[in-house]
Amino acid sequence: MSISDWPEGERPRERLLQQGPQALSDAELLAIYLRVGIRGKSAVDLARELLQHHGNSLARLAQASLKSLSATPGIGLAKAAQLKASFELARRALSEEIKERDLMNAPGAVRDWLRLHLTHLPYELFVALWLDSQNRLIASEDLFRGTLSQTSVYPREIVKSALAHNAAAVIFAHNHPSGNRDPSQADTQLTSQLKAALALVDVRLLDHFIVAGNSPPLSMAERGWLS
Question: Long-range contacts made by residues 195-203, C-beta under 8 angstroms, separation at least 24?
């Protein structure tokens, strides 16, 4: 049965207009974007299948390649390209938001940006968000890329980058491709070393996030591990 044959109160587009986008599931929102399904499958069915092929994760879907997206029957290269464009717009919107705000007052936007940037990478990536004295973003920088299990981070290079950006503060983040967001002993030791090194040049370490799986990024500051 096509969506047009559904009762009006159950159709995703009509529900969005009446109740707002927050009332819809991920699959229903995707279905509105896809517009039509294929023979034997409604747009909602197609959207559910697309999500299932990517671990039922929007973050993973956002990172998927054109080849991976178009592997779902009914999702050709044209629709896959449209999806990639929509996710890129979301990334740019989040980038604009975190550039214009005090990041300590926008933790949700920071977490969303980090999830889009780091979730489901097959390797570890260590990222720095360099901030000015008002905690506004100066620049985001991918500093060190590692293997599946580890990355090498050098405090001296971190300090040089802080000085090059004339930063007053920084938020670090890295991902765990294993899906386990708990910090290792090496993670906590490195964070302490970086905090001490940056203090010598008057740069404050505000937080260190660990991004893994579908869970919200873990904040070391919120856990009290930066004090």
Answer: 195/226, 197/155, 197/156, 197/158, 197/159, 198/158, 198/159, 198/162, 198/170, 200/159, 201/159, 201/162, 201/163, 202/168, 203/159, 203/162, 203/167, 203/168, 203/169, 203/170
What residue type is 120 in one-letter code?
H
Kindly state the DSSP code that residue 225 receives in the 8-state scheme: -
* Token pair belonging to 224: 């009290």
The two tokens of residue 2 are: 């096509």
CA distance 218 to 212: 8
Q: Write out pLDDT tens, residues 68-95.
A: 888 888 888 888 888 888 888 887 887 7
Residue type for position 173: A
Measured distance CA(102)–CA(217) in Å, rounded? 19
* pTM flag (> 0.85): no
Listed residue (137, 145, 193, 199) closest to 165, CA to CA: 137
Report, in angstroms and rounded to the nearest whole number, the Rg of the chain calculated over CA atoms. Answer: 20
Q: Roughly how many angstroms between the first and final C-alpha of the chain, as a whole number?
A: 58
